[in-house]
Amino acid sequence: MDQSVKDAIARWPDVPAVYGWLSLDGRGRWRLHPQGQATAGGAGESITNTQILDFINRNYEHDDAGRWYFQNGPQRVFLRLDAAPYVLRLSDDSHGLLTHTEKAVTSVSAWWLDDAGQLYAMTPLGPGIVLDRDLSALLENLTTRNGASLLDSLGPLPADETLQVTWPDIYPAAPLQTITRKDIAQRLGFDPNPGPPQ
């Protein structure tokens, strides 16, 4: 978090949080909702200014309740997550994953494959969905415990079973499980659409 943001919080600790103005889509794009209606759905407007995007990326956090927000000076801007708190892509050298905020993923403790074919990972930064355009390339790098390609080994995986997978020399073995899309937020521990307290 930027020092100027920390200083603003210290000066004005009681600024009310806002809801409904910002969302993160499934491709890692920040979207502005000028009418404050993100919690009701809708695509919103793309944010394209690189300075604003960098500022949001540096000041993106979450609270203990799994609500993700952008700390805009002294004010928390809670946001709607269309897929997960992070959108993960292959690094430029294809030796690991990066978040949509350009942070390196140093490890993965668990993988989930949902009923729509999307792959999720639990990272030290928080849970993320693998960007769809990088999914095939990532799956080609993952292997089972015996060294076989995950793509060659992946068949129907029963809901109550796990498969240990690794990305050799990048991420050690971690369990891969299936999950239904409706259970993702609860299982991965985030609130996809926080609203104001009632």
Automatic annotation (TrEMBL):
InterPro entries: DUF2944 (IPR021332). It comes from the Bacteria. It holds the Pfam family DUF2944. This is DUF2946 family protein. It comes from Achromobacter seleniivolatilans.
